[in-house]
Specification:
The structure is a homodimer. By secondary structure, the first copy, chain A, is α/β, with parallel strands linked by helices. Chain A is built from ten helices and eleven strands. In chain A, helix 4 crosses helix 5. Chain A is globular and about 50 Å long. Strand 11 of chain A pairs antiparallel with strand 11 of chain B, so a sheet runs across the interface. Chains A, B: It comes from Streptomyces bambusae.
């Protein structure tokens, strides 16, 4: 498949590298490719410059949001939540109509410092905002409830755990489910919550996720809904 | 121990019955005991009149919030979130100072219909509001992330799952932990998130809890943080 991953941060890079390793044709979209490639700084959280990562992943191309979206059969929103609507607007609705968008972003709000809050929250969600703003997109909110290394390698967390699906388009959720299986998520690890409105629930996991990270001192954990399936539903364990 | 359970709904009754069965001296607090006992209706969710429940639990007494608080060594807030501050105000701060309060309530906001939202949310929590309003109380937010039948009988959900603790007083959290053990929660099933501020995280689990209830069609489920402890941490399984 032809994928456009929107966003050049650690989440976008991790997903792009995984998709590339699975043989997909991957373009990363950014606002200004020349500016992205010119950056040399490492972020405070230790994420190095994009150009160095690009050298290690020569098959993955970098282009504008619009070029990436035009190229793709399926898109992944890995921009920061605050930038997502602008990124998709730049991608151009004409390049989005009818396509599946996996929305893995969270609308983190750092205006009150760390840990961030959410905006929107409770009465709305980023997933719903994107679906309303781009009604031709088939939005599936997924993978936004865990660290990006767990997204593409669920085996990092021993035992059963869940990835959620929220979306209004059953076919798009089927596409998402197949991609998740290719990442190593078993059938019983994928929990379909219902329509895109249920993205409110998964985005609101972020506050406890951040506090769990603080309490546990690592990010190799994930939510498991105990009682969601029969015993032994996860891969026969 | 002498317990005051504030709130006569299904959560308060379930916790009071469990505490009574464990040999504790339990008083349920309500605004107007005569009015509570006079009610004859069954709620739309099937909760029968308090008086009928009272007959089945003759050792548990019903009294005003203030009398219940005066009686107790330890309090449980099982009122509706919107009524909690008023209930504790009626209980009288003089009867609260120095005591442990287990806050199992959630600030559900039904103003936009079902499923309810939360108020406060994200930038504050009910647990923090209570701690601020009654600085002499030693508030521990706990048990608010599951159905009340699971609270007092964690074995209803097969396998490992978690109950969270949030609070600023280490001794009060120890008291809470001991009570949870007496309910059947093993040591490894109790996850201390930190200060009362972390109640924001657990209260914000309610939106996905409500949507999971819808997707799964039952309430015998709970959150398990996979990766929070070593394998087999839960009771040797």
């Amino acid at each position: 498949m032809r994928y456009a991953v929107l966003g050049t941060g650690i989440v976008g890079r991790t997903l792009a590298a995984k998709l590339d390793s699975l043989g997909h044709d991957v373009v990363i979209g950014t606002r200004d490719p020349a500016a992205t490639l010119a950056r040399t700084e490492t972020t405070p959280t230790g994420v190095g410059p994009y150009a160095a990562w690009q050298e290690e992943h020569p098959r993955v191309r970098l282009s504008t949001f619009a070029e990436a979206a035009a190229h793709a059969d399926c898109l992944v929103n890995a921009t920061s939540g605050k930038a997502s609507i602008d990124a998709l607007t730049a991608a151009d609705a004409a390049h989005l109509d009818g396509k599946v968008l996996l929305d893995v972003a969270n609308p983190l709000d750092f205006s009150r410092g760390f840990p961030p809050g959410l905006d929107p929250v409770d009465s709305d969600s980023l997933g719903e905002q994107i679906q309303r703003a781009f009604p031709g997109l088939r939005v599936v909110k997924t993978l936004n409830t865990m660290n990006c290394l767990v997204m593409v390698d669920p085996g990092r967390v021993a035992g059963e755990h869940h990835v959620f699906l929220s979306g209004d388009d059953a076919e798009a959720k089927k596409t998402a489910r197949e991609l998740l299986h290719s990442f190593g998520w078993p059938e019983s690890g994928v929990l379909d919550l219902g329509g895109i409105e249920t993205a409110r629930g998964t985005e609101m996991l972020l506050p406890i996720w951040l506090r769990l990270m603080g309490a546990l001192g690592h990010t190799d954990f994930n939510f498991h809904i105990q009682g969601a399936g029969g015993p032994g539903a996860w891969g026969g364990h």
